[in-house]
Amino acid sequence: MRARVRRGASRLLRVGVLISVGALVAVTPTGLAQVPQPDSDPFYAAPPNLADYPNGAVLRSRPFALFGLPLPVSAWQVQYRTSDADDRPIAGMATVLVPMLPWLGPGQRPLLSYQVAEDSLGTRCAPSFALRGGLDFGVVNTYIDTPFMAEALRRGWAVVTSDYEGPQSRFLDGVNSGRGVLDGIRAARALAPGGVGSASPLGAWGYSGGAFATLWAAQMQPWYAPEVRFAGLTSGGVPADWSAIARGVDGSYQAGLAMLILIAVARTEPGVLDLLNDRGRALMETEATSCGSDLVVKYLNAHVDDYALNPNVLSDPVFRAATDRQELGGTAPRVPMYLYHSNSDDVIPVAGYTALVERYCALGADITYKHSGLPGHNPAAIGEAAGAMNYLADRFAGLPAPTGCNGN
């Protein structure tokens, strides 16, 4: 048995390497020609009787080759019914991945809900499009996250990755994102691929924008999806204090993130739209379907105030009230958590993370948290990933999680 496990681990390691290589090979003109963008793909269209289905119901599914390559991973796109933040029925999309090896551990194969930092205003930025081999600069965040999903597959876990922003690409909408994640998990369980079932240990993981969706889902789970019980979750680079995030990057090499936050809030909050000048209103139209990666390149060192009627718009009470409604910490997740964040994060200030951890602790959460010494947002994502993955592995193995608040 031990030799068999070693051979299985070796094969799964090759899976991870092949997927990472596949992410690069897929960025070719061939990939662009073969994969239509979601808005042009009839598979993404909602059925006319959508409202007749319960949340999490599978509407349709199709197998596909991950990145369009012959990799040893079974992959499906799954359309499912969910509800947006206004309780309107919408058609969500999830990607389910299972390694082509039997699960050698105890019980059913674990299922990891992995949230990519979608960070988008349009569906061409969605992970389902990227994982099918779609070519667009907007899918860069999915490719960046590919090694983490590959490591989960290497360990024999199944992975579900939802387009949690929904068909309207509602960035910075916590309720919409949380529902998209939870209903994507329901759909993956209903699909029941490769040994996944109702008894599969369930985990969740996300970094940066993916952490936002992961933690909103965990906060909402007890009342929105009580049957979806997490064994544990991990999140890093946690977005907290959105106004401070926008102010911190405004005028810098990451100024496009401030523009993304402004546009996302303005298109869902009419009061914020009223803060914009003519240039700002033109911005709303020009960038209506842009990805965060597009904006970072296009608005290098830009200043949000150039698009507003009055100075200091990012500190305006109307803007702050709008972002406050999207802050984490209204309730504490009822699931063991491992949270991590760089002390010198150059995108998301650590003060917001620290305050959120303190808030969760005060609400009685069980957290193992880390203030990482690794310098910067992206280095911490890579350097702290092993701790996050091992925490999930322990929960999947049934090991008891530390209780209370523990960390540095």
Give a verbal description of the structure.
The chain is an alpha/beta fold. The protein has two domains: 2-230, Alpha/Beta hydrolase fold, catalytic domain (Rossmann fold), CATH 3.40.50.1820; 242-324, 434 Repressor (Amino-terminal Domain) (Orthogonal Bundle), CATH 1.10.260.130. It is 40% helix and 16% strand. Strands 1-2-3-5-4-6-7-8-9-10 form a ten-stranded mixed beta sheet, with helices on both faces. A hairpin with an 8-residue loop joins strand 1 and strand 2.
List the helices and strands and how they pair.
Blueprint: H1 2-25, H2 29-34, E1 58-64, E2 73-83, E3 89-99, E4 111-115, H3 127-131, H4 140-154, E5 158-162, H5 174-191, E6 202-207, H6 209-224, E7 232-236, H7 242-249, H8 255-266, H9 270-273, H10 278-286, H11 292-298, H12 317-324, E8 337-342, H13 350-362, E9 367-372, H14 377-383, H15 385-396, E10 405-407
Parallel strand pairs: 4-5, 4-6, 6-7, 7-8, 8-9, 9-10
Antiparallel strand pairs: 1-2, 2-3, 3-5
Helix pairs in contact: 1-4, 5-6, 7-8, 8-11
